[in-house]
Amino acid sequence: MSSNDPDIVCNTSDNPHFQEVLSQSLSNPARRGLLRGGLGLAGLAMLPGCASLVAPTAAASPSLGFTAVEKSLLDNVMLPPGYQYTVLHATGDALDSALPAFSNKGIEADDWARRVGDHHDGMDIYYIDAQGQYSDKETGRAVLCVNHESSADSHFLHPNGQTSNGVSGKKFDQFGSWDLGVRPELEVLKEINLHGVSIVEIVKSAQGWRIQQDSPLNRRITPQTPARISGPRAYIEGIRSHMVTRWDTSGSMSRGTLNNCGHGKTPWGTYLGCEENWAYYFQSTAGAALSANDVASLKRYGLASAPVAAGVTKSNSQGWHTVSATDDRFSRWNLAALGANAEKDFRNEANTFGFIVEIDPLNPNATPAKRTVMGRFAHEAAVCGVPKAGEPLAFYMGCDSRNEYIYKFVSQAVWDPRDVGGGMAAGDKYLSEGKLYVAKFNADGTGEWLELTLADTRIASYGAFKFSSQSDVYVQTRHAADAVGATKMDRPEWGAVNHRNGEIYFSLTNNSAVNRTPAKVDAANPRAYMDLDGIKSSGNPNGHIIRFKESALRATSKTFAWDIFLFGAEEDMGDANMSGLTAQNAFSSPDGLWFSKVTGICWIQTDDGAYTDETNCMMLAAIPGQVGDGSKVTIKNKMVINGSEQTGTQETFLGAALGEAKLRRFLVAPKGSEVTGITETADGRTLFVNIQHPGELSKPLSSGVAPQSTWPGQQGYGPAGRPRSATIVITRKDGGLIGL
Ligand code: FEO
Ligand code: CA
Ligand code: CA
Ligand code: CA
To answer: Rounded to an integer, what distance in angstroms lies between the CA atom of residue 191 and that of residue 117?
Structure first.
């Protein structure tokens, strides 16, 4: 997502922010006693959710071995001394040598289904062995899957910017309004097809990794690629009934994937694209009256802002539907009830988005599958816990909007390592049947997984949306989570698993002053403060990272223990700088989050708009401890609201301070970009990182003002001029392990 996003809040449920739960639990003497002495291992063993902790060994804790990178406002990728980067691929690069090289002037034809997409985001690597099969061992030949999230900078991909009402040179805000009027067909086709996933073969040579043009494995999944609707056997027909459209009246197939943000990699070797802000591509012109349930669904998913008697209108799409009312490539983006029934229009089209989409990177003939059992929301990423043979798998998933939730899917099938390389058949085995949960973070440092099932009377009797079957839960997951009282979080972004102890981390990127004030905080989202220098924002503008440990380290656990790993802050923020950050490791708005299996480093990437007066977005390396290695702390909150100062305190649990020895800035990105997407080679000596939307704050092309960024062209990659998103390859000049 871009950092200048609006206040996206579709959660108007009255789920508690824990104030009352907090005061109750702080009177719990057992917990209080533990906290007073810090969370030692002996104490932790007594906590619910901490039944079988393993003491960390000093030998398992590596040390960072690079010089911290200074804050930077330069238009380049800044790395520590001794490190270097090259560009692997950038927006518009051709997958086939038959295509013209990318112009960087916006003059391409409708050929983006064979070019690298825009807004590089989550990604992963899939090695190919000598038999052409999937391998998790390094082979020198691989496929790299990259999500292409957004068309927010697509003004750079047309000759003179975007066009509406016949006027070119514009720059639409993905989340804002645009001038109504018919959009040009070619512009819209480019914008549609630059989304999705790129699957590109890469090979290692003496010069490092490069893409293999013309590989039969090269392909694009775009918003037009057919995908099957998969789900639990008992409920799939009910699920598909919500997806009936003019294009497929059975609802068993949908077209494509959209706004893929973070990602997941399955233990059997497939890729999970995650559909995040898909709601912002749809328009609803006036149409027939909708049912109360349909209106409730549109509102809760950000597809309509107000209940209406007949038709729903909003104007924050990209206007793709305006090209044609009869050509389904365009009319599908209009949700209005224009036909006699759902088989005659696209009123249900939005129900086909908001899922985890499984893709087999090594089988170009495999049809992607939407895994409905994992729920429908603004999926940021999907991280699999450490697999254990003979036990179910757990996937952890965030819903990235302010005040949304963290979810867990637990497979019915138990893990069998012989399924490695099993492709979509293995996906059907593990991602069709299972249980879906949502997280509730209690004020005493414990948490609960609340199952989303119609057997829960809170869901069966929910008022804001009437559930009639379990099928509805998979399509209206946000409503079900509201019904059971999940915890509203400060925008869950990526999750990550610490492979060394099985703990799960989640970025909570930030929240606004509308949602967080000293009176509206809770133990898991405890800060409300003002940034008093530079960009002056309030709420929780710098975000934090929370982590949790499942009880008994089991995928199936219903309880967990949590604490806050790190609070983002500027180094000069006083009380708000709870993690003691310095100029060498201060950061804001954590987003990408990922652990190296080789080094154990926790990599933190930022998508920020609060600290960017002092530094561009960045990536940091952290050496984490474990849940409970810190102490109970009291946050002092202070904000000015409507001219009057409000203060308050909030108690929470904060992990051990890392200091500069265990937390350092490793990379600072070009102007106007976010850092997102990361993976490594199996030897830990090459890191792939994505730089998304350099030059995001550029003026429209019609302004005549030079773009904010010209990366990577001016640094020698491809035609100079307009900025491009890209995957970079980072190595150490001496060939050593990255970060140590
Ligand atoms: Fe697409 Fe949540 O960032
Ligand atoms: Ca993100
Ligand atoms: Ca500031
Ligand atoms: Ca400052």
So the answer is: 10
Are 275 and 259 in contact by the 8 Å Cβ rule? The answer is yes
pLDDT tens digits, residue range 45-55?
333 333 233 33
Closest C-alpha to 370, from 217, 226, 196 = 226
543: left (phi over 0), alpha (psi -120 to 50) or beta: left
Mean pLDDT of 662-675: 98
pLDDT band of 9, cuts 50, 70, 90: low
Which residue, 290, 292, 293, is CA-closest to 313?
290
Q: Minimal CA–CA distance to 7: which of 489, 513, 610?
A: 513
Distances from the Cα of 286 to the Cαs of 242, 246, 253, 289, 543, in angstroms? 21, 18, 26, 9, 39
Burial class from Cβ neighbours inside 10 Å (0-12, 13-18, 19+) for residue 36 reads: exposed
Burial class (CB in 10 A: 0-12, 13-18, 19+), 52: exposed
Ligand nearest to the CA of 119: 1
Contact between residue 212 and residue 236 where contact means Cβ atoms under 8 Å apart: no
Closest CA to 312 of 296, 328, 331, 329: 296
Ligand 1 atom closest to Cα of residue 494: 2
Using a cut of 0.70, tell me whether the model's pTM lies above it: yes
- For ligand 1, whether the C-beta of 381 sits within 6 Å is no
**Which whole-number Å values give the CA distances from 101 to 106, 107, 109, 574, in the listed order?**
12, 11, 12, 51
Q: Can you tell me the distance from the alpha carbon of 34 to that of 594, in angstroms, rounded to the nearest whole number?
A: 31
**570 C-alpha to ligand 4 centroid (Å):** 5
* Distance separating alpha carbons of residues 47 and 710, to the nearest angstrom: 53
Cα–Cα distance, 684 to 682 (Å, whole number): 6
pLDDT at 377 over 90: yes
d(CA 677, CA 593): 8
Tell me if 124 CB under 6 Å of ligand 1. no
3-state secondary structure 301-360: CCCCCCCCCCCCCCCCCCCHHHHCCCCHHHHCCECCCCCCCHHHCCCCHHHHCCCEEEEC
Query: Which atom, in ligand 1's list, is nearest to the CA of 400?
Result: 2
Instruction: Indicate whether 176 pLDDT > 70.
Output: no
Q: Which atom of ligand 1 is nearest to the CA of 380?
A: 2
Task: State the Cα–Cα distance between residues 586 and 613, nearest whole angstrom.
Answer: 13
Which residue is closest in CA terms to ligand 1's atom 1? 1
Atom 3 (ligand 1): residue with closest C-alpha?
A: 1
Q: Which ligand is nearest to the CA of 537?
A: 3
Cα 241 from Cα 372, distance rounded (Å): 13
Question: Please, how many CA atoms are within 13 Å of residue 215, restricted to the half-sphere of its CB?
Answer: 24
pLDDT exceeds 80 at position 722: yes
Distance CA 723, CA 697 (A): 11
End-to-end CA distance of the chain: 30
Q: Are 549 and 50 in contact (CB under 8 A)?
A: yes
The kind and range of the H/E element at 298 are helix 292-300
Q: Is the CB of 608 under 6 A from ligand 1?
A: no
**3-class DSSP state of 430:** helix
d(CA 339, CA 348): 12
**Peptide bond between residue 712 and the one before it cis (omega within 30 degrees of 0):** yes
Q: Per-residue DSSP letters for 63-87?
A: ---SPPPPP--SSS-B--TTEEEEE
